Amino acid sequence: MFELKPLSESAIPRAMAKAERYRLLHEPQEAESICRDILRTDPDNQEVLAMLLLAVTDQFARGADHVVAEAHEVVDRIRGDYERAYYSGIVCERWVKAQLKGGAHVGSTSGWFLDALDWYQKAQALSPPGNEDAVLRWNACVRFLERNPGLLPTEDTGDDAGFSDATPPR
Question: How many domains does the chain have?
């Protein structure tokens, strides 16, 4: 079989720009591959870990449950309580939206929105001054729920309500 070739440290800035471009071109697999190449050379590059997480969550539309676990593995490598909370919210929000777009039953998605909101609330409490990204994501989720009022359960159906068996919450 073929072996992966290493990336030099001097190539990292250019590779990061290329990965970002591939994400913007809706080619998340290419962006993911580049991020993984960079991380082989610089395993703790926090900016690249965030970009990798976004590239992985860009692929949620395929619906494979293992991709959620992969996204959580990337979140676990991100330093900082704020960043981990914020990106955990991103994982939940993007997963539920991808599932809904793919035609998932509403009952299997509502818990993910509540989980996303919970992560964004935690992130907001930890956010540095002037960084209100968690507020922006919270508001986007609330507006999405307002436009889709049937997504949330109307009565308490238990702690695991809204979560599919194949993709457990974190």
Answer: 1
